[in-house]
């Protein structure tokens, strides 16, 4: 029978005009639907979103998932599918995966990610495999992969990084002192100036003798 806006009493063992289903057939789940100030019972083959089926000797019921942002759950405290935009991880729902876990976008799940160790100390400042002879060089530090990711598609974080550093020893002991690249140009300019000065001085002397 149908009672206006109330659900059809399909699958009910007993039904009320005001409250809908009161008892369900053995295999069905009793669900108490609320609409505003009213509530009425329904008998369903499976529970709606946000609920899970709880079977008891007395009567099977739909119980609410107690996990935040859960769309469907296996039990009161274990979510099997999260709401849109949330990742499922160990029966809970998260906006982002916890540390050590990576997001698997196609399934919206958190899986074990690539675990890396602590950074090593910064290495010796060097350039061209030398630790002297230059003003600036590079120093590097590394870290090891402790655990590989469960999926090959999940990348590992950087395991090596370098930064600019100042050489502790500018000039190599016993080696030739490196001169700036412009030293030769300066020497050439100085030589040209000397030659021009000498030429002008010769012209001055020749002019002076002629005038005498």
UniProtKB/TrEMBL annotation:
PANTHER family for the chain: NEUROHYPOPHYSIAL HORMONES, N-TERMINAL DOMAIN CONTAINING PROTEIN (PTHR46987), R-SPONDIN-2 (PTHR46987:SF4)
Keyword Protein biosynthesis: no
Record field: transmembrane: none
Entries under InterPro entries matching the protein: Furin_repeat (IPR006212), Growth_fac_rcpt_cys_sf (IPR009030), R-spondin (IPR051514), Rspo_Fu-CRD_dom (IPR043601), TSP1_rpt (IPR000884), TSP1_rpt_sf (IPR036383), TSP1_spondin_dom (IPR044004)
Location of this chain's protein in the cell: Secreted
Record's compositionally biased regions (Basic residues): 172-191
Protein name: R-spondin-2
A GO CC term attached to the entry: extracellular region
GO terms of molecular function: heparin binding
